[in-house]
Amino acid sequence: MSTPRAILLSTLNARYMHTAFGLRYLYANLAELQPQAEIVEFTIQERPLTIAEKLLSYQPKVIGFSVYIWNVREIADTVAVLKTIAPDIVIVLGGPEVSHHPDVPDVCELADYVISGPGEQSLRELCTQILNGQRPEQKFIEGQATKLEELILPYQYYSDDDIRNRLIYVEASRGCPFKCEFCLSALDKTATAFPLEPFLAEMDLLWQRGVRNFKFIDRTFNLKVSTSIRILEFFLERMSDDLYLHFEVVPDNLPDKLKEVLKQFPPHSLQFEIGIQTFDPEIQTLISRKQDNAKTRDNIRWLREHTGAHLHTDLIFGLPGDTLDNFADSFDQLVALNPHEIQLGILKRLRGAPLNRHNQPYDLRYNPQPPYNILSTKDIDFVSLQRVNRFARFWDLIGNSGRFMNTLPLILAEQPFKRFMQLSDKLFDLAGQSHKIALKRLFELIYVVMTDEFDIDSERVKAQLKLDYVRAELKGLPDYENLPSLSKKTKAGVANKRQRQHG
Questions:
Q1: Does domain 167-380 correspond to CATH entry 3.80.30.20?
Q2: For residue 398, what is the DSSP state?
Q3: How far does Cα 285 stand from its chain's mean position?
Q4: Dihedral of the CA atoms 300, 304, 306, 308 (nearest 10)?
Q5: How many whole angstroms separate alpha carbon 134 and alpha carbon 352?
């Protein structure tokens, strides 16, 4: 039996390794209510009945859920169970998925209260009223922002188990000065930094407790370069073989002073998440994205050539005005810059995002179910979007996995997007799916496509695949000599399947 708690702060994380950073902020700022509260985290893989049983074991009066695009469906199922079993428990929702009334998901109908925006102050006030028997009549509550210097920082509430087994999120600033319409940060007025020295003192305490992987969630870490340098120098003073720092950076803002500090970090100690999204200047203007493409390209080249940082770059497919051709151009430009990863995201409808103003003019049609991914636009039909979805999946398996470092340049030799789309289409035809393909089988199918479809010399393909096969530490090389018959058999199976579907 769990220790009774009047207030539970909960959410469903995408994976166990993730931690609910926002819940720790809420808990840290509950003031006199904190002894009555508990953080209880789950994952989206757990059953609603199991989650409800665990939560009810605390005998709570209030349960607050943090709702995001990736967990809204599972939280709705859990809240429905709770309201059926224990309707007197007050359910409070917060988080970006429920912060834009009246554009809110159905789970809000089941909840007693919904707090939009920042919740540290508003949740404390609401819980105080509820526990005092003074429940407010207003269901939708506009969250009140607290000055960052007045917030109690949450880092002490990472448990020892969190430090051993989970990602540790930190933030040196909140907000974003840019207005990219696909992002909820476009609603921010500006970026505001936490007082630097108290923040660094907290980082030092985490470091002393054994944290060696710090994931900064700042939207624009390198916006104020003097602060960025101070934080980087702080970690340089504590550098060890296992220290690893993740930052999201503005790609066209890399002055020389910052470069000098970055060059001092040893290989494999930094990861930069670099949002490119598109290189198309017309689309950038349309979605209010300010990005100097020339500086962006130069800076990525510089980072690749002069630092050991891992470069994770992002593109978004399905933006207003996007076509297969101009997305292919952005992809090809990015491939030429040779980042370690290219994350191919499919546009999703975020509630409250300014991009929604383009829904009618560009006929943006989204999946009605989470994660609300784009299904078609004025310029991209459903079939093309499905093809790019599979492209993204196969790119993760082949391009981003690092398993095909020797073979990938051969695949992308000319017109990378066109070639990889051809590979993706053919792999899907042969395998009948883009998931759950055994690695050895993937090697075999790539060989078939590269020799049959790309008409590359089989011995050359075998040589490159063998290098990657050995790196992957797989046992027993594929029997390439028998693969032509294997491919014919697979093709026949696909043909028969299609015949049955249309027969």
A1: yes
A2: I
A3: 24
A4: 130
A5: 31
CB neighbour class for 294 (10 Å; exposed up to 12, middle 13-18, buried from 19): exposed
pLDDT in tens, 24-62: 999 999 999 999 999 999 999 999 999 999 999 999 999
DSSP E strands, 329-474 = 341-346, 365-366, 374-376
Q: Which two tokens stand for residue 469?
A: 């096969």
Summarised one tens digit per residue, pLDDT across range 285-310 is 999 999 999 999 999 999 999 999 99
Token pair for residue 303?
């980072």
Report the run of H or E that residue 239 belongs to, with start and end: none
Strand bridging mode 113-116 / 90-94:
parallel
Give the tokens for residue 246. Answer: 């993740």
Could you say which of 3.30.70.890, 3.40.50.280, 3.50.50.60, 3.40.630.30 is the CATH number of the domain covering 7-146? 3.40.50.280
Straight-line distance from the first to the last Cα atom of the chain, in angstroms, rounded to the nearest whole number:
59
Query: What whole-number distance in Å separates Cα of residue 170 and Cα of residue 245?
Result: 10
Please name the amino acid found at residue 369. Answer: Q
Closest residue by Cα to residue 286 from 296, 295, 277, 298: 277
- Name the token pair of 203: 């980082």
The structure tokens listed for 60 are: 């709570």
Q: Structure tokens of 348?
A: 């999703």
